[in-house]
# Entry
Amino acid sequence: MGRVRVRVIVDKGTSVFDGVYLSVARGAFRRYSTYRAATVAGTVTNTVFGMILASTMLALWRARPGLGGYDAAQAVTYIWISQGLLVTVAVWGGGFQDDLQARFRSGDIAVDLYRPVDFQGWWLATDLGRAGYQLLTRGALPMLAGAALFDLVLPGDPLVWAEFLLAVALAVVVSFGLRFLASITGFWLHDSDGVRAAMAVVSMFFSGMLLPLALFPGALGELARVLPFSAMVQLPADVLLQRRTGTALLGLYGFQLAWGAALLALGRAGQTLAVRRVVVQGG
Amino acid sequence: MAEPGRGTAARAGWAVRSWWLITGMWIRSTMAYRASFALSLAANTLITFLDFAVLLLMFAHTRQLAGWTLAETGFLYATSSVALGAANVLVGSVGGLGERVRSGSLDTMLIRPAPALAQLAAERFSLRRLGRLVQAFAVLGWSLTALDVHWSWDRVLMVPALLLCGTVIFCALFVGCSCVQFWWGEAAELQNAVTYGGATVLQYPPTVFAKELVAGTVFGVPLAFVNWLPALHVLGRTDPLGLPAAFRFASPLAAALCVLAAGLAWRAGLRAYRSTGS
Amino acid sequence: MAVIEVEDVRRSFTVRTKEGRWRRGKREVRAVDGLSFTVAEGECVGYIGPNGAGKSTTVKMLTGILVPSGGRLRVAGVDPAARRAELARRIGVVFGQRTTLWWDLPLRDSYELARRIYRIPDARYRANLDRCVELLDLAALLDTPVRQLSLGQRMRGDLAAALLHDPSVLYLDEPTIGLDTVSKAKVRAFLRETNRERRTTVLLTTHDLTDIEQLCGRVMVIDHGRLVLDGPLERLHEIGGSERTLVVDLAEAHPPIDLPGVRVARTEGPRQWLAFPARQSAAPIVAAVAERYPLVDLSVREPAIEDVISRIYAGDPAAVPAP
# Structure
């Protein structure tokens, strides 16, 4: 399943259709699969948070049935989907960012820029590999736990699941684009911790990770719906809950694609500036 | 030469002083990157406000959540956050234990004449953790004025007491859960599940959750003593579990037991580490 | 008086092994297996052996980090494992590949912290710091953030940090690894001075035999957790560390080169391995070869610890290092 997902992205990319990137992604997938204790611990954490948030949603929907166009079961399902996406899509940050940060600290980052493989493409490939592994573990396992503990409404049609997987893949690309931008500030700031922390805040809130965006009132809701963050959690959840089908689904993919492309292009521009800066400083 | 005393008090004093010395070094280290520091402090304060914004958004759609008002829920939110925030400032770094073991820096701590736990708790200290505390106190101030409570002296005294006990309980949970990493180095997130997960549970009224879960926080991981049980007294509410009233005043006892358990876990973990050298 | 006493010390680890995709097995590894030695006050002892021989396990037990599985240990009269915190004030440790200095702070701040953590009286702290600053040439570096120091400067800084509290025993783990020649010389000179003037007992772990040659009167060689040699440096030379190897590439294959004082250990097409006494300079040999043969390329190989050990086993001082 993970491998299929990687293919989908590779087809979309421009320079990424290359054996190197595919093996990089596979390598990342395999690397994460060796952190077995971390996977178990993380799955437990996601499940605990899923239980907490699902209980609060049930309390809210008991007071206001049908709030935001969701019934109680859908609201609870939304929470479990978002818990499954939290680490897969790296809403909180992390993944390749930790590796990149270690490269900054050690000074190896200057060397990385001169490698024959593309810097951004390399890290995108590792992040897709990571996401593939985490979807299978920290995405799927909490969902299964949620389904065992609560009444969830999940589609039986495999086509909807395929549509969901595509939306998740695009969500990872958007998330990568954002995180890449946050991380490369390290070229100018010495330490991108602060920017990463800020990004994590905004991502958590505006992605719909904490609360469905439908519950955001007025202008705040409008804002949340146009920002790229919604592509990370709210939109994939919409696909699985079948709130968007047919042409609306195409619009959803278009939104994700547009933000993904724009963010990658911005990251590319930042990378060019960074290279120039490293050249000026002499590494 | 001034040898540290042998008494428990002298040893505790030395541990606190070591913590303070090393923390001071980390604070000065972060000042080397001022811009990043300022941004992360701002972000950290903001992060926790967005956390509270979720609660506000929920109450924008309902006047009561499982029978509790916004001011009451805000009181739970604030007390839970103060306790967690203070514990995170004091000992939050122990969560990095597995990483310290892997990098070998735990060994370096073990050959310095300062308690290893104090050094570990101060490792990579960051002032930006104060952000959560600032926000939590702001929410607490607001909720205290918004609550419709008759403030008798016992209720007034209960508030600082529960903050203190809650902080101690969370400190013990941070330390105790980190000890798992002596055996299971990558399991840092389990600690998050208990501490951050626990704090999130306590931010909502106990009536939101299944009775089994609430009972688990009284008799299992003693989270309920952080704020749920004492808050029942402060807010004059009935206990969903129908426990005897004494439970509402048992937080100091629960805190002491937690510290004892965490201390034993730390000793056992360190002993295992030193005899296996994993 | 013996400062370090090690008596039949053992230390075994349980290692998890991977067997197939999911199954895991357990295996017991004896990292240190019946080790006994004593080190007298003021001695400087080289402690060498191949990777994984048990060197760092020994040092971890001597510092009290690791509890031995068996046997008896005393450092400065104290059982390290039982009284780790007390011992910490009386030992200094330097890891060549890991700094204990504060990365983002000026060097001076790390020393100030040491003063407080080790509770060094003011007068003694100042005297010790002045001495280290002078001998290690640190005056210009005291206000520089550690991250801006070169590897050699950092190592000098680390050495000073480990000595401010007047430890009676100093453990050094690869103190010259990765350093340039000038820094190596400074570090060695300082250690020699400290060992002589302060009577500080030094236990030195290294891969660089030159460190041992210049600092240590005695060498202990450990392999598979046991001492295979313990004696004066000369013993090591006798057994096999006495030869260096000059590898020369000629334009074409030649019969073995014939030079006085040089033994051809091996030939392989145009390449020849010339063994010569370690204390002799390579320069005249190179000059002689270049004069008489079509020399294309050359390199000099120092005796490697692994080779020395293999020769100890073989009991054959004339054995030649495998290329």
Q: What stands out?
A: The interface with chain B takes residues 35-38, 40-42, 44-45, 48-49, 51-53, 55-56, 58-60, 62-64, 67, 189-195, 197-198, 200-201, 204-205, 210-211, 215-217 of chain A (CB under 8 Å). Confidence is low (pLDDT under 50) at residues 1-16 of chain A. Chain A has one domain: 2-281.
